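Hi V.,

Quick status before I head out on leave. The structure for the redesign project is tokenized and pasted below; the design run finished overnight.
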């Protein structure tokens, strides 16, 4: 799940709202070699101090990277201090409202396809394993189940029936088009988060009618009230072997 906070990503993108910074960012990104403050100032008709201020702000937000070296032809003891150069950062910054994480889904799907191709196994089974492993890693890293949900863009909120429901699906558009596949990924991912946090007191169930996401979280050991009984992913989607056998029943 995303490790950079949403506020940090918003801050990084918002600096480009300034036309001068946006022009400097585009200039640096369009060049095959690093750009100095003097080069940038000359290219855009800015004072050196103005160019330096905005370039450093872009670097501060992680949109540009900085390196120091002497210009060509200047070396030796009398060459002076190294010059500061800027390059476009390889870091990608994405902000969506509501929060979405399609890159995470794409990574899980790609890893599952790669695993299935190399082993000859079923892609859906590989998807379950990869999503669960990703969730466990997330849980271990986060150290707190509810914090992991919030960081993942799920917007957890109290459920009157007990536990939590999600106010947002980070994979909304994909879920609209490929509901079963994405709901399976979602269940395995969040169940994996709980597995990565032994004793977290949370139990994940698949519930297509819960909130704005197909996941409901129950508190371990607490009464479930009117919440639906726990659902396994195969009760929602069907085991791969079951699906294959059912497909031949009518033959």
């Amino acid at each position: 799940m995303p490790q950079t906070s949403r506020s940090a990503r918003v801050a990084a993108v918002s600096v480009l709202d300034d036309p001068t910074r946006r022009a400097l960012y585009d200039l640096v990104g369009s060049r095959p070699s690093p750009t100095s403050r003097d080069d940038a100032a000359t290219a855009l008709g800015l004072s050196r101090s103005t160019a330096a201020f905005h370039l450093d702000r872009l670097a501060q937000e992680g949109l540009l990277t900085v390196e120091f070296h002497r210009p060509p032809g200047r070396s030796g003891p009398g060459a002076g201090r190294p010059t500061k150069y800027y390059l476009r950062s390889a870091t990608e910054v994405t902000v969506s409202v509501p929060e979405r994480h399609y890159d995470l889904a794409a990574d899980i799907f790609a890893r599952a396809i790669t695993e299935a191709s190399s082993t000859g196994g079923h892609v859906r089974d590989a998807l379950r394993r990869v999503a669960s492993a990703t969730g466990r890693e997330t849980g271990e890293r986060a150290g707190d189940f509810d914090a992991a949900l919030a960081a993942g863009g799920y917007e957890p909120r109290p459920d009157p029936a007990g536990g939590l429901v999600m106010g947002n699906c980070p994979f909304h558009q994909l879920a609209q088009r490929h509901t079963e596949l994405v709901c399976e990924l979602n269940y395995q991912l969040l169940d994996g988060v709980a597995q990565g946090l032994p004793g977290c007191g949370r139990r994940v169930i698949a519930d297509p009618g819960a909130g704005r996401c197909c996941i409901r979280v129950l508190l371990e050991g607490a009464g479930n009230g009117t919440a639906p009984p726990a659902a396994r992913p195969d009760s929602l989607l069907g085991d791969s072997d079951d699906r294959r056998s059912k497909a031949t029943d009518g033959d």
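Above is the designed sequence. The first strand starts at residue 35 and ends at 36.

G. will cover questions while I'm gone.

Best,
W.
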